[in-house]
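[step 3/7] fold_predict: job queued, chain A
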Amino acid sequence: MALNNNHVVIMAGGVGSRFWPMSTPQMPKQFIDILGCGRTLLQLTADRFQGICPLENIWVVTSVSYADVVKEQLPDILPDHILLEPCRRNTAPCIAYVSWKIKAKNPKANIVVTPSDHVIMDVREFVRVINSAMKFTADSDAIVTLGMKATRPETGYGYIEADLTMACPSNKEIYRVDAFKEKPDLEVARRYIQRKNYFWNAGIFIWNVNTIVNALRVYQPPMAEIFERMLPYFYTEKEQDMLNELFPMCENISVDYAIMEKAEEIYVFPASFGWSDLGTWGSLQENSKRDSHNNACIGDNIKLFETRNCIVHTTQEKKVVVQGLDGYIVAEKNDTLLICRLSEEQRIREFAEE
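[step 4/7] structure written:
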């Protein structure tokens, strides 16, 4: 398999509203050093694909308003590989745009599509899994999605039901998908966990460029037509103008609804490499280093007294002292301080809008 046919597409257009006040529409979570490790989530995402594809085959699809921050954080990415959506239209149009553009130059391209704001703890295992999946998709019509081995009855993720009775002949780690399941309630999530053939849907996809373009032609003809019209303008000065005109005509639809739930040749690669979509303050607490009282602190000078089960994220403050809290978020950014029960964090969007 030619490594130079491997392409990585990083989707970086989200607004990260559940991480307010740290994440704002002007500077969403993918552009922030959430983990306090010196690299933003976007930079960590690009870092982990070294050894999967050459640097010149990395693509970032983002909003036109984040163009400068992407260029600043990933200065080595080719300028015409930073694709700028004029408006938000979910993941299917984003994937369609970059797929048609890649195919115009490399009809043999083999692509992995990933969100920009996930955390992977075991990068070596991640690289092994992706390379194995890409070998499988390089010369087949298969669409592969990664299924994370579920460690708890999580209600914040969608699930993939796999047929584990028979592995694929050419890759014994890959199985057919029986069904995609919406985010369940707690009782249903507990049932999934017991049944061993249910995996978290990580939203990471692997396919070759012909497979995805053909799937879009079959299942989303109006969208396919829009990007067929774009073909003469790719890699020219008129590309952005044409995109600004045509992209808003795309249906606002996720790739899950647009393709995954309709197509025939859908497979799952069950994997375990310490994955989290870092969707909430609670998931950040779980993925951060914690003290003996289950507190996670991200910031330079934080002192806790009689405090347990909290996440404190105060990277701009000189000194923070917290006493007597149990199960709270304490987060500060740009003159806004949030103190909120972890159990009520689904209301953060509402607080942000206030």
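[step 5/7] annotate
The mean pLDDT is 93.
DSSP finds eleven helices and 17 strands in the chain.
exit 0
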